[in-house]
Automatic annotation (TrEMBL):
The keyword Glycoprotein does not apply. The lineage of its organism: Bacteria, Fusobacteriati, Fusobacteriota, Fusobacteriia, Fusobacteriales. It is found in: Cell membrane. This is BMP family ABC transporter substrate-binding protein. CDD domains: PBP1_PrnA-like (cd06354). One of its GO terms (cellular component) is plasma membrane. InterPro entries: BMP_lipoprotein (IPR050957), Peripla_BP_I (IPR028082), PnrA-like (IPR003760).
Length: 340
């Protein structure tokens, strides 16, 4: 009996050693290409859990799947620092592509691209025309926001919604009008209250975001969407404290305050960044303007991980139907639609 037990123990040990030695197969990282890309982020920088973080994910994906290396810079004030940093990257001659994140970069990218016509540039969220070395990456934010507005109109108990934007600029207006059009598609009589942070740091001012949201909630709004970068943390805080819903933006922010954030309007900046870098690596870069809407997987909403049950399958089905209609062009969301 002792001999049998000893043999059994040896066998178990052998199996254990083999199992410990076995390695899980991992997808190999892309071979380094030697190609380099540079990126200058927008206000708020990495860690905003929104717009800039989405751009960063695109860079990381390009590194992993395309084998590129990248340099990055986070300016405190893009309007002041961006041009110098873009110039430094262009002067070096090291980079296949230089990316400027956000509409505040337009003047800087346009100026530096003019000085370095052989250097490829990409600008996110604004259009530069007439330059053969610049691609402008634009999003149909109004389409994604249409879905959040429709959902908010389905869920509101007060028939009053709110919207907090960073600044009154075309890109933020596209979020606002999409939200308004979506809500009124479901309920033409609904009230939407809008407010803008403005000031010196509109996309990184949670205190102002909280104050504006509290003011909107005081006027009977029970769901508030934001399009204000890191300022949105204040929007979420106010919503949580007052027991109403908030709607996130750019990245999946649902998990920031689970159950309070009804959904987030996803703006896949990472998709645009990755696809542009891929085009450069493959030698198919084209200047001009590229648009990313629902049909291009550029915008949408989250999987409703924390709010699916409270929203209910009937509303989810309605939302999916609206998504399909926008994607197929049956519903046209006007980027220059109403702002109130």
């Amino acid at each position: 009996m002792k001999k049998l037990f000893g043999i059994f123990t040896i066998l178990l040990t052998f199996v254990f050693v083999l199992s410990c030695g076995a390695k899980t197969e991992e997808a190999p990282a892309a071979e380094a290409t030697g190609k380099k890309v540079a990126i200058v982020y927008s206000t708020g920088g990495k860690g905003d859990k929104s717009f800039n973080d989405s751009a960063f994910r695109g860079m990381e994906k390009a590194k992993a799947e395309l084998g590129v290396e990248f340099s990055e810079y986070e300016p405190k004030d893009p309007s002041v620092e961006a041009k110098n940093q873009l110039t430094e990257y262009a002067q070096s001659g090291e980079y296949e592509l230089i990316i400027g994140v956000g509409f505040t970069m337009k003047e800087s990218v346009e100026a530096v691209a003019g000085e370095y016509p052989d250097q490829k540039f990409a600008l996110i969220d604004d259009v530069i025309e007439g330059k053969d070395n610049v691609v402008s990456l634009m999003f149909r934010e109004q389409e994604g926001a249409f879905l959040t507005g429709a959902l908010a109109a389905m869920m509101t108990k007060t028939n009053v919604l709110g919207f907090v934007g960073g600044v009154e600029a075309p890109v933020i207006h596209r979020f606002a009008t999409g939200f308004i059009q979506g809500a009124r598609h479901v309920n033409p009589e609904i009230t939407i209250l809008t407010a803008y942070v403005n000031g010196s740091n509109p996309f990184n001012d949670p205190v102002a975001g909280k104050q504006l949201t509290e003011s909107i909630i005081a006027q009977n709004a029970d769901i508030v969407m934001h399009a204000a970068g890191a300022t949105g943390a204040g929007v979420f805080k106010a919503a949580e404290e007052k027991g109403v819903f908030a709607i996130g933006v750019d990245s999946n922010q649902d998990g920031e305050v689970p159950g309070t954030i009804l959904t987030s309007m996803i703006k896949n900046v990472d998709v645009a960044v990755f696809e542009t870098i891929k085009a450069v690596v493959e030698g198919s870069f084209e200047a001009g303007v590229k648009y990313f809407g629902i049909a291009e997987d550029g915008v949408g909403i989250t999987e409703l991980e924390f709010t699916k049950d409270v929203i209910g399958q009937e509303n989810i089905d309605k939302l999916n139907a609206l998504n399909a209609e926008v994607k197929e062009g049956k519903i046209k969301v006007d980027e220059n639609g109403p702002l109130k």
